[in-house]
Design goal:
It is a single chain. With about 400 residues, the chain is mostly beta strands. It contains five helices and 18 strands. About 10% of the residues lie in helices and about 50% in strands. The radius of gyration is 21 Å and the shape is globular. The two termini are about 40 Å apart.
Length: about 400
């Protein structure tokens, strides 16, 4: 496979502007719970997967997994004040808190929100319930670049300016952890291992997260996201304020991060379209890699395009039957400083499959995936079957 040209990349950016998901103006579980007038509200979702790598040369074991089982709760203290939390069990044995925030409605277009917050970047990070997206697995762009599920502790403001058809979110949050008894960030999955998830998080630098969603055209939702800041490191702890040498060493463990994202979702007459693009610029990676022995890239880039059609859209039924195809291109070594590019990190994924929504929150899924990279001309193939639940 040859490297994509800049001309092709810009063509794909323009295509994204005209495409976009299944629920173009839909809600995630937290949104639904916040709108409930009940004192105590309960929601949840589950994802059960079967993944079978396919090879013509060797036998390969499949993997069957209760990937996620999540319960969400919201408590309304009064008409203005609510608390929302999301408790997740992954792979049966791992327990995480994915959201835990207090929401105070100041007026119809301004809410204060504080606690463990989802970073509003792209689509999947906020809309990650299995019944809201096509495919058994989430797009790999939302694993390697964004990376979902990305959440940190912070506070800020959110609201919906209805006369402008504009939803906004603006938060100051804790950031990725880049160093703690060794370097954490690396080339293969970039920022993913640095997610602190609100678990005894190190704090050294505040970060800014913002997103604006426009929904003024029926069936269409456009999103623009930004994340600006620096990573967190344990090396500043205990350094004397006049110890210039130790502070310089700690500085070598910090990465500056500027990420932008664009996403578009559109549904019309049974057709469903989705697109997302993300670019991140990372500063100080040459010093960081030299200090930690890692291979972190200085720029990350990725996009995907997806299209599907509901075969039951003309029927008088709440069921949906949606065959779809998704093309992904993402590179965690889009640019590097002081190290050689690893072509295996420049990846292309193709997913084709079908989903049957028996009800709006219950879906059976099946798809095939082909995984390739610039280091080889071969594609790895995988069959996926899954069950998705959302209520």
């Amino acid at each position: 496979m040859k490297n994509s040209t800049m001309k092709m990349r810009w063509l794909l950016v323009l295509m994204l502007a005209g495409t976009s998901a299944f629920y173009a103006n839909g809600q995630n579980t937290a949104d639904k719970l916040l709108e409930s007038e009940d004192r105590l509200s309960i929601g949840g979702y589950a994802q059960i997967d079967y993944n079978q790598p396919l090879s013509s040369d060797v036998h390969q074991n499949g993997n069957m997994d209760i990937h996620r089982l999540v319960m969400m709760f919201a408590y309304r203290f009064n008409e203005r004040t609510q608390f929302v939390t999301e408790i997740e069990y992954e792979h049966v044995s791992e327990v995480y808190v994915e959201q835990a925030f207090l929401n105070y409605r100041i007026n119809p277009w301004l809410n204060f929100r504080g606690g463990l917050l989802l970073i509003p970047m792209g689509i999947i990070n906020e809309y990650h319930e299995p019944a809201t997206y096509n495919g058994v697995e989430r797009p790999n762009l939302d694993s390697k670049i964004v990376p979902s599920t990305w959440r940190e502790i912070g506070a800020g403001f959110t609201g919906n300016i209805q006369n402008l058809n504009l939803k906004y979110q603006l938060y100051v949050v804790n950031g990725f952890k880049s160093y703690d008894d060794g370097g954490i960030l690396r080339g293969s999955d970039a920022l993913r291992k640095g997610r602190q998830k609100g678990a005894e998080s190190i704090f050294t630098h505040p970060n800014l997260s913002a997103k604006f969603d426009y929904y003024g055209v029926p069936g269409l939702k456009l999103g623009l996201s930004a994340y600006l800041g620096e990573t967190q490191t344990s090396l500043y702890d205990g350094i004397a304020k006049d110890d210039v040498a130790m502070e310089a060493m700690a500085d070598s463990s910090v990465i500056g991060l500027n990420m932008v994202g664009f996403d578009a979702r559109y549904s019309t007459n049974g057709w469903v379209f989705k697109g997302q693009l993300n670019y991140a610029s990372l500063n100080n990676t040459d010093e960081y890699n030299a200090f930690t022995g890692k291979d972190l890239g200085s720029a990350l880039f990725g996009y995907y395009l997806e299209a599907g059609y509901d075969l039951l859209n003309q029927k008088d039924t709440e069921q949906k039957l949606v065959p779809f195809v998704r093309y992904e291109k993402y590179n965690t070594h889009q640019d590097v400083e002081g190290i050689a590019k690893n072509l295996a990190y420049d990846r292309t994924d193709i997913t084709a499959g079908i989903g049957w929504w028996m009800a709006p929150g219950a879906v059976l899924k099946a798809d095939m995936q082909w995984f390739g990279n610039e280091a080889t001309d071969d594609f790895d193939t995988q069959l996926n079957l899954g069950i998705g639940i959302w209520f």
